[in-house]
Amino acid sequence: MTNKEIAYAFDDLANLMELHGEDEFRIRSYRNAYITLRKLDTPLTELDDDAIKAIKGVGNAIAGKIRELLDNGKMANLEKYKEKTPAGIQEMLELNGFGPKKVRQVWLEMGIETVGELWYACNENRLVEYKGFGLKTQEDLLKKLDYFQKSRGKLHMDAAEEVCDQVCAIITEKMLGAYVSPVGEVRRKCPVVEKIEILVGYNGELSAVFDTEKLILNEAEGKKFTAKYNGETPITIHHCLAEEFGSKLFLFTGSPMFVQDFASRYAGQTFTNLRTEFDVFEKAGTAYVVPELRETPPQATLPQLIEQQDLKGVLHVHTTWSDGLHSLRQMCERARDLGYTYIGITDHSQSAFYANGLKPDRVKQQWDEIDALNLEMAPFKIMKGIESDILNDGSLDYEDALLEQFDFIIASVHSNLKMPIEKATERVVRAIQHPKTTILGHPTGRLLLSREGYPLDWDAVFEACQKHSVAIELNAHPYRLDIDYTLIPKARSYGIPISINPDAHSLAGLEVVRFGLAVARKGGLTPEGCFNAK
User: Which domains are seen in the chain, by residue range?
Assistant: First the structure.
């Protein structure tokens, strides 16, 4: 091990011990060892035990730990603390400027155990209620989390699209007249993107594209270039002639399975040197397949997929009555200005104390404000909803007498996410059976790249939704996109409508509907199958 690696082992140990509230004197001694060892000129591998003990600030105990690292590559004490610390908490300690005391607070006081959960808590304004976490601190932390996620290799759909748009803009500006498009996972609207790929059709060299601080070339291999955007995000750029742009766009967009199936179906035909992608399908004599559906071989009859203009209203919206950033009036006016004809307000129910959930008296106060706004904003309609926590036994928050007065209810699990499949399914099915449940919210509770969804017996869930006329949410937040698009065809086979909901906690949050719409299309959803297209 190098001196620097050994030094960082002591830094890790100090952070983990501080996280667990251990003795401050020992923590300080390990931090001092970190500072000393990383500046040491002589490799520790060249020193005997006496020489190591003679280093200023290194006594017998620390020297023994250095020897462990040199001999075994591990330190028993560090491994002990790692074993009792969730992996997600250890990952949080890697966040620049977010120290052990803050990590300990979000872990023990807020129950947050992964970087993704922390990001989502910031997005839902959960941290501002806690001591030491003002709005500015939360905003700064969000920026750190965004950078951290981008540097890990995989990206959520929204982040990948943002990077793609910026890189495409650089290329378009540098290469006047070039044809430029995202391809691969980004163009297929994959919920998680492992590789950002861009196709450039241009009859000339691309070297000028990399003559910028924003886009740095790593390697050129024929017509394929790998680069880094902003020093953090890997990009692959494919170069072709302008006249073959359509052929290459088709080739680089579809999954290997889709492209191979197409090639075998139309063996003997050539699809090179075609200017547009439509030319490829026209030459094959087959219907155009939208990029979202190019994961697997296409159906014999392609569905008429849902589009933005089909959505009539927006549901699952939070306001300052619970944990939203903007007022009821502001959220309603924004939804109306976006072209929707109705909005469903669903602040958190009383059990969500962490989100300032509404006690019954506050529910009725909110209804009074909704009644007044409905009179003022007609014909735009504001519906009285609630996001009711599904409690551990599957019952809904509030007494039935109050539940019956809501226009609609989204029932969601927010706690105890580690139940075995039988108990988790029983809990969700019981909530579906409640006569006032309208929509099953973010049905698996997953956070993409951060937390797996809890397991469910989907046949049992679908049968219950079918029997009790309950819709299933496709939560459009790019960190959720839950229900997974692969389950949409089966849900629709049961006749269950899918509700594309933003789970908005701010004005900007209303616009994440587009991500939900993208994966709904990927799942083959039609306007007829969408709950809020009615």
Answer: 1-85 (1.10.150.110), 87-151 (1.10.150.20), 155-293 (3.30.460.10), 308-533 (3.20.20.140)
